[in-house]
Amino acid sequence: MAQAGRHAEKARSDCWMSLDPKESGGIDIRLKSKVASMYGEAIKILCREVLKFFGIENALLEVDDSGALPFVLSARLETAIKRTFPKIKKEYFPEMRMGCLYKSARMRLRRSRLYLPGNIPKFMINAGLHKPDGIILDLEDSVAPPEKDAARCLVRNALRQVDFYGAERMVRINQLPTGLEDLNYVVPHNVHLILIPKCESAEQVNEVDAAVTEISRRVGRTAPVYLMPIIESALGAIKAYEIASANKSVVAMTIGLEDYTADIGTARTAQGRESFWARCQVVNAARATGIQPIDTVFSDVTDVKGLMHSVQEAKSLGFEGKGCIHPRQIEVVRKGFAPTEAEIEKAKKIVAAYEEARAKGSSVAVLGSKMIDPPVVKRAQRILTRKNENNPLITLMNANIY
């Protein structure tokens, strides 16, 4: 006998299931749910369908439902079945919805990325409505070790059923080698980007890419899966360039300061002096290899002023985005990384002056008392390219159906 999920009094949009196999007697489903009068029969039909798929003909199934959607119900039941019968390897896939089939792009916006615990479905259902640039379904730190198997099933089903409204579909896998098993649950289901935690070498990046390539070949996937290594140790920071340049699938690199500061034997502070060097390593390694540098999360969800200061500091160091641990942080991060009106106006003048100089046959222009050369123009053009990115609908520009 095995159990999976959480009881109704402890969870919303979730369920608890207990599966007790029997020698005979068929399937006995005992359902407790506040919505039993409306959806009780549909819940039982789904449970019977899943049990039949896995070849279970005789069992007592207890279900304590708190408004779980079908993809959650089937994930919880599959987990209970596999905990009861560990030798079962096949998977029950819910329908792949059209809203889950959009693509990503190598150089798309990754300014705000919302972390969601991989074993708590209530956070997943409406996450896309907050309009982050990316949604990270987390299989690592936010999931307790005994629940890793349950999180894999739930994240897989969410990738097939939950419309994130154009947000890049990301998954943070576990540390290697455990994370390689996670890939089997997400690569076939239109994940866009894999975050590699505590990355310390190019070999780790290439190991993940090789596994992704093999799984993609096996299931017939043709769309690319991008990689984002996370620097979380002294060794990782030292090898930042090696990691950033390890593989063409790497499109961004970020840093996790809680683990990094623990690794170097100090505490994380608001001033951030202890992590300044490591953050600069990430920025320079990313810029040297043409990928996006993404800053760490800001852990105090109530401190809006502190978050804005952190975003402004990150922007001044060269970062292009920041992790979010609560939806309320998304808009602050979005506005903080967007160019200001003053920056936009200055950029327009720089580009206009440079184009005028080029028309006259010169590669150097003067604006006021300052010389404008190609690097300055490049920075101005980047600002103008991003001036409309504060519109969250920009994330839909690459949302093409397969």
Most strands sheet: 8 strands, parallel, barrel
Annotated CATH architecture of the largest domain? Alpha-Beta Barrel
The helicity comes to 40-55%
* Anisotropy-based shape: elongated
H/I helix tally: 14
The strands making up the biggest β-sheet line up spatially as 5-6-7-8-9-10-11-12
Overall mean pLDDT score? 91
Counting DSSP E segments of at least 2 residues, the number of strands comes to 14
Taken in chain order, the helices and strands follow as EEEHEHEHEHEHEHEHHEHHEHEHHEEH
CATH topology of the largest domain: TIM Barrel
What does this structure look like?
This protein is α/β, with parallel strands linked by helices and 402 residues long. The chain folds into 3 domains: 2-84, 2-Layer Sandwich (Ribosomal Protein S5, domain 2); 98-337, TIM Barrel (Alpha-Beta Barrel), CATH 3.20.20; 341-385, no CATH class. Helix content is 41%, strand content 17%. It is built from 14 helices and 14 strands. The protein has helices at residues 36-53, 70-84, 122-125, 148-161, 178-186, 202-219, 234-238, 240-244, 257-263, 276-289, 304-317, 328-337, 341-359, 374-385; strands spanning 2-5, 15-21, 27-33, 59-65, 112-117, 134-138, 168-172, 193-196, 226-231, 252-255, 292-295, 321-324, 365-367, 370-372. The strands form 3 sheets. It has an 8-stranded parallel barrel, surrounded by 4 helices. Strands 1-2-4-3 form a 4-stranded mixed β-sheet, covered by helices on one side. Strands 13-14 form a two-stranded antiparallel sheet. Strand 8 (193-196), helix 6 and strand 9 (226-231) form a beta-alpha-beta unit.
